[in-house]
Structure formats: C-alpha cells, structure tokens
Amino acid sequence: MGPIIGIDLGTTNSVAAYMKDGQPVIIPNLEGDALTPSVVAFARDDHRWVGRVARAQAVANPLRTVFSVKRRMGRTCSAPASEAVISSIKRQMGSDYVVTVDGRAYTPVEISAMILEKIKADAETFLGESVERAVITVPAYFNDSQRRATKDAAAIAGLEVVRLVNEPTAAALAYGLDIEKAHTILVWDLGGGTFDVSVLELGEGVFEVKAVNGNTHLGGDDYDQRLAGMLVQRFRDDWHIDLDSDPADQRLIRQLAEDAKMKLSTQLDVRVVLPHSFGRGSRCAVTVTRDEFEKATADLTEKMAASAQCALADAGLDPADLDRIVLVGGMTRMPAVRRLVRELTGLEPYAHIDPDQVVALGAAIQAGVLAGEVRNVTLVDVTPLSLGIESLGGLFARVIERNTSVPTTKSRLFTNARDDQTAMDVHVLQGERALAADNMTLGRFQLSDITPQARGEAKVEVAFEIDANGIIHVSATDLQTATSQRIRVDSASGPSPEAVDRMLDESRQRMESDRRKREDIENAIRAENFLHAADELLGEAAQAGPSQVIARAVQAVETGVLAVRDALAAGEAKQIVTAGEALESALKKLSTEVKTARSAATRGRAA
Q1: Which of 304, 310, 388, 435 could form a disulfide with 398 if both were Cys (CB 3.0 to 4.6 A apart)?
Q2: Which CATH architecture has domain 4-177+354-376?
Q3: Catalytic status, residue 189
Q4: Active-site residue flag, 8
C-alpha cells in the first residue's frame, strides 16, 4: 500500500506532511507552497478552484467563494445561504447554514472534501505514488459529531482515515520526538477558527494528554472581523467611502484586514491602502497601530486565559509545574498572545518549529507510528467532553468524565423510572451541563423487552466505548434477560448513507475531470502569482515619489489586477491566460519605471 500522510485540515490553511528517513517533512502543494488556503470557489463556467487561486479571486467572486468551513463541521441547522452569509463568510461560516451557490446546496462535509481532494492530488503528484490513507488532525474540543464529519469528508475525497489526532497532541509529537526525559508541557493552539490548550506529560516515548480545554469559536477569524470593522469605520470617517454594503467590498476589506493583522505582528503600525479605483483619482489610505488593534481585540485575547487555567486545574497542576510552553497556529505570532502566555505561566513560549506547520508534522509522525516507521512512541489522548445519558427529571447522567484517556470503555447501572416499564429510551449526550437539554444530543435509541418490575428494581447497564479516533459506541443491556441494544452513535448532523454514496460518486467524477483541468489550474496559479507580484510592486511604487509616468503605470497594473480577478471568477481558461499576460506586461512596465525613478533619486542625492 502507499504511504500514510499526515494532514492538518485547518480553518484558514491546510498542510500535509510525510515521514522521510525517519523525520517528518512537509509536502508542498502544486503551487509550491507549504500552506494551502482552506478556500473553495465556484467559477461561473463550472470550474472549481481550491486553495491559493480560490483566495485570490474572492474579491471578484465573493458570493461563490467559501472560507472557514471547518467552523461548521458537524452542525445541524440548514438553510439557504443569503448573500450576507457567503459574502461575510469569515464570520458567518461559524453559523449553522448550508452554503448555497447557484441553487446547489453544499454541506461543510462536501466543502472540506474538496479541500482534501486537492491535498491528496498534490501529495500524489509530489510523492509520485497513490495516497489512500491519512492521519488527520482535529481540534481537541471537536465533539463526536464534528469528528465524524471530518471522517466523512475524507471518505468522499478518497482517503481512509487511519487515525484522528487532536491538534495539540500532534504538535507535542512534533516537538517531543527526541525528548527522552519526562516533561510536562502546555500546548497553546490558536488557529484561524479554534483555540485549544492541552496539558501533556512526555517521557520515555509516551505522550500522555492530562487535560484539554478550549473554544471552537475563537481564532484568527474573529481578529480579522474586528480589524475589518475598524478599517470600515476609518475609511468611512476619513474618506467617506462605504465598504460594508457590497459583497466584493466586504471581501476586499477582510482580505486587507487579514494582511494588516499579520504585518502588525512584526510592525508597530501598518498603512492600509485601497486600490486606485476606490479613490476617484487618488489612493485612499488609513493607518492602524498595533496598540489600537490590541486594545480593540483585548476581550478576545482575554478569553484564552480561562481555558488555560481550567486545563491546568483539571490536570492538577500549577504554572510552576510546567517545563515548556509550545505555541501552535499562526495567530500565536501575535505579540499580545505571547504576552498573555508569559503572564499566565511565567515561561518564555517555545516556538522553534513553524507554528503553521507543526501540527501536520506531528500528524506525519503519528502516521509513521501506525505504519511501523516510528518506534518507541505511544500516544495517549483524552476525550474533551463528558459523555452520558438523560436520566429521570431531564438530568445529565455522566458515564465517562471529560479528560478520560482514550480508547476507553466505561459503564453505569440505571433502573426503571416507573412500575412495569418494559422499554427504556436512551438519549445519548455530550457536554458538561447539569441538565440534559443544555448538552449536545449525539443520538437516541430504545432498549425494549425489559422484564416488568416495580420501579427501581430493573438493572440496565449502559456502556460507552470510545475508540482511538474519539468515535463513540453506546450499548444498553438488561442484566436480567441479557437483552441488549448497541449503536454506533451517528451524528444527527452527518449526511445519510445515501448522501455519502452520492457525494462519493460525485467525487469520483469530479476527480477525473479535475485531472483533465490541471492545465487550467496551473494557468490560474500563474495568474494568481501575478496578483501577488502586483501587490508587492504597487507598494514599492507608492514609495517612489510623485510621477505622472509611474501613476499611469500603476493604473495599468491595477486595471490588470481587476481583469485577472474577473477572469478567475469567470473561470474561463482563455480569459485567464489573456488577462495574466496583460498584467505581466503591465508589471514589467511599472517595474522599469520604478527602477528608473530610484536611479534618478540616487544620482540626485550623490550630486
């Protein structure tokens, strides 16, 4: 069989890795990047873009571009997506809506499968062999429903999930592979859509998770949204420009916000400039300082403290007991986040591995363990939420407490609530609330043919089994008659078997057509590279000083940028090539003029 690869299926970016000569190595995508944006776009001629190209054309095609779908994995409520849902996808993807594009409804499972299809295809191109198995990471606080949805997405993409691994645990594997002495570490994982904090003990090849906590709706998306709101208000106040009504403008301002956020991790301030077309002849710009951004998002940052303190308390530890703090996720580059970590633990964060890649590297190590390539490593994970059933009075009766090591099997005896009761409804729940109604329903089934007895006399054993992937099985047995019912708890939000079959069939057809369209994708990547080059060159042109020649060249480049984005949104192969070539020509012209202006300025200073 082919290799088992590790995949970090992220909210903002996804990454793949494999084991080579005993070490985990990142698998570059077709574009040559380590990170694949978790973005899917539907062009108007039935093309489908995934990754960097999809992200590049989003401003021109906001209503057909889907971001941050991971936040919706395993959620139940479905409704047609309004324009606001799709155009404001960076936040709205956390809600319980199915995305509808051109009358076709797509579930989070289907969108995630499209991302995994690209990762699989790119890995096969790089490795030169078929890839059919993977270890996929999930947030530690993903519930059973979300874990099942992730496995369903992989199945549609043609991947067998040999293990689901919690993201912080995978990061610990990446950092701790060579650690021999016992260490107690805290993994602080802040990604695009989720925050997890885990306490682990590492020693003699054993990686044991002691406690986990977190928030599945706290991440970089929330910081992007907050900064986008600041920018909308600034441009409205300073330039009388409304960027909050048109979907394309909303997508543009979110993209500018994300770019500015990343720059503020290394700069004290950043100048955000709108494209020439917004300025009616002049380029409109506003400046945001790091201090302003940190103050505006202080409440988001502070939310992480409680989760970290709770995880330590659950593990029975104090900050002084920690040997190391490991940072995971691109958002941990933010200075305010690192300050909070230092304040809470008194330790300097350890971030020697790229925080965007460390989870995928850990997943590859776990893949190596399962394939027999990595020895003397044992992974002991935990369940993040308590599991149980509804008992008399609508109470939540726990059978397995949160932070129990998995795999595990635990049972608890229950009795009849009324005289001569012959059936028991078993309402399976996950959560931490006292009342059943306040927790998440995982499934329901009925145990029938119970021996009729007086109230409180029957003995029914309810057993929960959690496998290594965190997937749950539940059984109920009448101990007097041995009558039993056993179910694998299927997520109420997951697709039906028929729907999975349909999606698998569609996937096979789509994968074949995607191979035929590889040339179109490569042309789109080339065009998107020109967009990236244009962004950098326009920044250089802004520093070159006033010049009518440069101004005309800038306008030509910006016109070319709009044409490329429109071509990508349309998905027309010839149009993409033509627009890309035109932009390339405009870039060469502007580059020449900028170099000429710099040379003239240098000679002037020398004189």
Answers
A1: 388
A2: 2-Layer Sandwich (3.30)
A3: yes
A4: yes
